[in-house]
Design goal:
The complex is a heterodimer of chains A (217) and B (251). Chain A has a single domain (3-216), classed as Class I glutamine amidotransferase (GATase) domain (Rossmann fold), CATH 3.40.50. Chain A has 6 helices and 11 strands. Chain A has helices at residues 24-33, 44-49, 61-70, 74-82, 92-96, 197-216; strands at residues 14-17, 38-41, 52-55, 87-90, 117-119, 128-134, 149-155, 157-159, 167-172, 176-183, 186-189. In chain A, the strands form 3 sheets. Chain A has a 7-stranded mixed β-sheet with strand order 2-1-3-4-11-10-9. In chain A, α1 (24-33) links the parallel β1 (14-17) and β2 (38-41). In chain A, 53% of the residues are buried. In chain B, α1 (32-41) runs parallel beside α2 and α8 (208-216) packs across α10 (235-244). Chain B has a single domain (5-244), classed as TIM Barrel (Alpha-Beta Barrel), CATH 3.20.20.70. Chain B is α/β, with parallel strands linked by helices. In chain B, 37% of the residues lie in helices and 28% in strands. Classes of the chains: A alpha/beta (217), B alpha/beta (251). Chain A binds chain B through residues 21, 23-26, 29-30, 32-33, 58-60, 125-133, 150, 152-156, 172-173, 192, 194-198, 200-201, and chain B through 1-5, 40, 45, 70-77, 93-98, 119-124, 167-168, 196-198, 220-221, 250-251.
């Protein structure tokens, strides 16, 4: 794809990683609803150069990683996260950023964030599907992308801890687990903002304005 | 806590929303995108589209319906009707579905459930079961939109579907569909008693009390259609009434 053709009116390019199995049509539609033109991408160069990258994902940790490896995107995504380039990782997309997952023992994750993915405790409805509250243990929420609210989940696993320097939100359904992590423009959500009604649309809008801020400074 | 879900359903045929009684006498009730917008605005937690088309031409129209509904829909969208293969499911996901519902084809060839689960994950696969009461807390599985009897037990099929990886079950009482006399709570209970997988109750709901009874019977979601299409009530009203009954829903 010609990267020149992807530029939005305000000079930013947003790419959505074409992981093949994700609910990509929903993610693309949610970006259009906040007025952003996004393009599917599947090469390391595209992933490196766009101002904002969305890493969607539904399905199995092992098949998600094998798809990223097949596309040769492992290094490019890891580097993006490590230099804190604006990235929105959703559900399995968030889990892929971890070192490893209970869902696929022996499979190496992107290792972009120093966390592991664990199975939700017994007693949590499985699959954990539906709307749940999101808690944020901070008084000031103006400066963050993920704020308290109610969001739509579809997961059986979650990351196990909050690494230093990252702001987190939590969900609690018989097991307290990390609902999101964010640091600068990197936002990783265990829930699906694209399926979380106005709460999710507002979140995506704030992330997009993060992308624009980074570009303007 | 996971909140219980109110899920409007659009039966779509030849690009239009239809509704019948006992799956028959279908009449047209509106445009899918218009109804989807209204229900979303009123506070639907998810949306289901079931393609009840009879012909291939009508099915192609339904793919366009999924595309147009997706454009403004910011909640989860389940699409079913006529899904026989992983490729069928892929087409619907590409058009904008988040979850796929399978029914008759899975009864005929249960491996379809395993194939969909291994391609898209459990959370993506809903097995829809249509049930006809046979008295004494027994229900028979019916397929092909209620036209074919299978002789199979609903409870047994529910267990099999879950064992094969179904992420949710959508259980419709064929006897009560379109009647407005309330869900078949015995049916719901007989299934929620034996599976941990989320169960969505369907067929017969008219009031908030009907919905609350299904939740108390163990359903995690309640499907409603006719009462909304007829504008006898709105999701907004149902939510207010459920809140008044002490039920916490998505704010």
């Amino acid at each position: 794809m010609n990267l020149q053709d992807m530029i939005n009116d305000d000079g930013i390019r947003i790419g959505v990683v074409d992981t093949g199995v994700a609910n990509i049509a929903s993610v693309m539609a949610s970006l259009r609803r906040v007025g952003v033109r996004a393009d599917l991408m599947s090469t390391p160069m595209e992933v490196e150069l766009v101002e904002g990258l969305v890493l969607p994902g539904v399905g199995h940790f092992a098949s998600g990683m094998s798809e990223l490896r097949r596309l040769g995107l492992v290094e490019a995504i890891r580097e993006r996260i490590q230099r804190r380039s604006a990235t929105l990782a959703i559900c399995l997309g968030m889990q892929l950023l971890a070192e490893s997952s209970d869902e696929a023992p022996g499979v190496t994750g992107l290792g972009a964030i120093d966390v592991r993915v664990r199975r939700l405790a017994d007693g949590v409805p499985r699959p954990h599907v539906g709307w749940s509250r999101i808690y944020r243990p901070l008084l000031r929420t103006e400066d963050v992308v993920v704020r308290p609210g109610t969001a739509y989940f579809a997961n059986g696993y979650a990351v196990d801890r909050v690494p230093d320097g990252w702001a987190a939100t939590w969900a609690c359904d018989g097991d307290r687990f990390v609902a999101s992590l964010e640091c600068s423009g990197v936002v990783a959500c265990q829930f699906h903002p694209e399926l979380s009604g106005t709460y999710g649309q507002d979140l995506i809008r704030r992330w997009v304005s993060c992308v624009k801020d980074v570009v303007s400074c | 806590m996971l909140m219980k879900r109110i899920i409007p359903c659009l039966d779509v045929r030849n690009g239009r929303v239809v509704k019948g009684v006992g799956f028959r006498n279908l009449r047209e009730v509106g445009d899918p995108a218009d109804l989807a917008d209204r229900y979303q605005f009123d506070g639907a937690d998810e949306l289901v589209i079931l393609d009840v088309s009879a012909t291939m031409e009508e099915r192609i129209a339904s793919i366009e319906v999924v595309r147009s509904v997706r454009e403004s829909l910011s909640i989860a969208l389940t699409v079913g009707g006529g899904v026989r293969t992983v490729e069928d499911a892929e087409r619907l996901l590409d058009a904008g579905a988040d979850k796929i519902s399978v029914n008759s084809a899975a009864v005929r060839r249960p491996d379809l459930i395993d194939e969909l689960v291994s391609s898209f994950g459990s959370q993506c696969v809903i097995v829809a079961i249509d049930a006809i009461g046979r008295g004494d807390s027994e229900w028979e599985v019916v397929i092909d939109g209620g036209r074919s009897l299978t002789g199979g037990s609903v409870v047994q099929w529910a267990k099999t579907a879950v064992a094969r990886g179904a992420g949710e079950l959508l259980v419709t009482s064929h006897d009560r569909d379109g009647t407005g006399i309330g869900y078949d709570l015995d049916l719901i209970r007989s299934i929620t008693r034996v599976v941990d997988t989320p169960v969505i109750a369907s067929g017969g709901a008219r009031t908030a009390a009907d919905i609350e009874s299904a939740f108390e019977a163990g359903a995690t979601g309640s499907l409603i259609a006719g009462v909304l299409h007829d504008e006898a009530t709105t999701i907004r009203n149902l939510r207010i009434e459920l809140n008044a009954l002490g039920r916490e829903l998505r704010p």
